[in-house]
Amino acid sequence: MISYPKPDELPDSQRVVITGIGLTSPNGNTLGEFRESLLNGKSGVEDYEIRYFGKTIAGVCDFDVRKYQTRKDARRGTRAGSVGCYCVHEAINDSGIDWENTDRSRVGVYVGVTEHGNVETESEIHEIRGFDYDVKVWSHHHNPRTVANNPAGEVALNLGITGPHYTIGAACAAGNAGLIQGLQMLRLNECDLAIAGGVSESIHTFGIFAGFASQGALATHDDPTKASRPFDKNRNGIVVSEGGCLYTLERLSDAKARSAKIYGEIVGYAINTDATDFVLPNPERQSQCMNMALSRAHINAEDVDIVSTHATGTGMGDALECDAVRRVFGASEKTYVNNAKSFIGHTMGAAGALELAGNLVAFEDRVVHPTINVDDLDPECELPGLVKNEPREIEKIDYILNNSFGMLGINSATVIKRM
Q: At the top level of CATH, which class does the domain 7-257 belong to?
């Protein structure tokens, strides 16, 4: 196994920290709003209807698209692009970076997504249906809307960034993958500032609802706020949601030089693959991923204060992840476990980044937000440190491990340390 140096023994030029957070979620459009909702049990899931599929439920964001985009840019672009543009401005504003004097050729943009292009393709087919499928009315904006690099590209265009940009397709592990890519590019000196995280526009494609429904994996409930219920015995599937979270990542040396506020340091990470099934998770590989991240961070499982779970609310998925968490953390009552999807549903490519943001504030207030809607805990999801329904204040929080897993067996984990 490759030996990694201890994070605190690296020079500051190789240590990477989070200095700004910008987000939009179904229950908040700032970090403060999002965190308050998580501590107060406020769900962002609501009734929703989409063409062809009909009535369902979803996590819907309500941010001001025109705050950072012109009407023209928003119209010719994509919903994922608008989410990204909103989040990046909020992150830069939060970071305190002197943006006007920043060398934009040294800024990199690394945005994770689960899927991209389905919304635009479905919409165009719907439009030409009204013209007897005459492709002459097909939008000339279609190609730039649907290329894989679009979400990151829209962010770069919006801010005049001339450094590298690309979108990272990593299924629902993409938010973590964006962070990992940003860290690596900073360490390689490919950029001096990394915009990293994930975005999702998934609720605007009827195909994703139809696909999960055909799998028997789409959540239903009379009360939409109770539909997303990871770990509960009566959970019955995924709530599809949109959202985004982008971070400003900097080398510790640069952050110190400008006396930046630091949310935490990324000290460990890992990505691996199950290689066993298209959709069914493999707890052995998931536990390996977590252990790899801990090894790179040079910490033991008992050093972790919060495990942010990926759990989506599916029967097998939640139980198998809990198996993986038990393999790593055993019966430790010192490690607390929570889940943000119970509040906002599954924000797909944004999930890893957005769910991490909801926990980062705990470094300051020492409060672990709960998993809500756990009315009848499934014995297969029993974890000693699971925080259910009410927040828990604890003595200290030094390390957070953030899980994010996806289809085709992609697993990711990041470890963040309090500074």
A: alpha beta
